[in-house]
Amino acid sequence: MADPERRTSRTIRFIELNWGILLILIAWEAWVVINDFNPIVMPTPQGVALDLIGNPGIYLENTAATFFIALVGLIGGMLIGTSLAILTWFSPVLSGLVSPTAVLFSSVPVVSLIPIIARMLGYNMATEIAIVVIITFFPSFVFTTSGLRALPPGSQDLFSVLGASKLSTLRRLALPAAIPNLAIALRLAAAHAILAAMIAEFLMGTNGLGYLFAVTKQEFLTERAFGTSVVATVISVIAFLATSYLERRVRARFT
Questions:
Q1: Could you report the per-residue pLDDT of 27-47, keeping only the tens digit for each?
Q2: Nearest to 162 by CA among 172, 147, 177, 152
Q3: Is residue 5 domain-resident?
């Protein structure tokens, strides 16, 4: 008796947590069926699910390509943003130069940068990674800069009285204070990295989920185009949840 009760309890719990998504899927299915839409125009959730289940290799191959580009670009963007933030902490002159430049650079629509970067790096994976780096470095720069300056009251004066060098102050005081902010930047940038990778793939026409979406859209494989969007949404949510969990652990450790 315990097993059926446990399964029923889990089912109820699942519905309670995901009733909004289930309602959208039911409404979507009903809307398509009632209006008798052709699958080329609007597929049903069932049709999208069947395409996902029936073609796992296509989705997995392109998901792996997008995930790799997003991961490498995210790491590169976080490293560049953090490094620039540290440099501006060391030098007010550099801060006056780098901060406005970073704001200006991040304000430029990334789509307009792709042809320029592609001319420099070629129509390949390097350009796609560069696009992800551009998208993800700014949160890292802003939040790390804020964390490096948000020191406990009087702590920097204490380090000065004790004769600590600038490097020692950075290593023992400023960087530990900035780690929670860096975790926030990672959470914000992680989901954006997936989107940036897909935009680059869509416009570059190489591989990955963005390329798969572009091809299936042109070939009127609407179910697969929707399936690509579902996969991209799922991995973006997973990235957000994973980095949110990491952020909570970091905050518990450093605050």
A1: 888 888 888 888 888 888 888
A2: 172
A3: no
